[in-house]
């Protein structure tokens, strides 16, 4: 069955839903129908006219200010 990923415009909640037919799902958090379907990460090329949207990061955002990783020399103070 197709599982799609959605993000809620109202509360920014990200969730996955099974989609049957053309039913428009709603946000499980705030019950809003104001949601957007997300593409899979593979097909997400820098082809959109929306450069303001930052990509989703899997790691916890604990990078130091000197780098974008979490394990550089200035990061390793923990
Ligand atoms: Zn919501």
Give the topology.
Layout: E1 3-8, E2 14-18, E3 35-38
Antiparallel strand pairs: 1-2, 1-3
The structure holds zinc ion.
Zinc ion is lined by residues 8, 10-11, 13, 27, 29-30, 32.
Output the helix-strand order: EEE
- Report the strand count: 3
| Small ligands present | zinc ion
| Structural classification | mainly beta
Oligomer: single chain
- Beta-strand portion reads 15-25%
Instruction: Report the biggest beta sheet as strand number plus sense, adding barrel if it closes.
Output: 3 strands, antiparallel
CATH fold title of the domain at 1-41: Rubrerythrin, domain 2
What is the radius of gyration computed over CA atoms, rounded to a whole number of angstroms? Answer: 17 Å
Walkthrough of the structure:
With 78 residues, the chain is an all-beta fold. Helix content is 0%, strand content 19%. It is built from no helices and 3 strands. It has strands at 3-8, 14-18, 35-38. The radius of gyration is 17 Å and the shape is elongated. Bound molecules: zinc ion. Residues 8, 10-11, 13, 27, 29-30, 32 line the site of zinc ion (ZN).
Task: Provide key terms for this protein.
mainly beta, Rubrerythrin, domain 2, 3-stranded antiparallel β-sheet, 19% strand, elongated, binds zinc ion
Write a brief caption for the model.
The chain is mainly β and 78 residues long.
């Amino acid at each position: 069955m197709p599982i799609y990923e959605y993000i809620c415009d109202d509360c920014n909640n990200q969730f996955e839903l099974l989609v049957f037919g053309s039913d428009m799902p709603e946000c499980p958090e705030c019950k809003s129908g104001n949601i957007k379907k997300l593409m899979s990460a593979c097909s997400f090329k820098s082809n959109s006219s929306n450069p303001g949207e930052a990509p989703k990061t899997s790691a916890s955002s604990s990078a130091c200010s000197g780098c974008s990783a979490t394990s550089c020399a200035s990061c390793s103070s923990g």
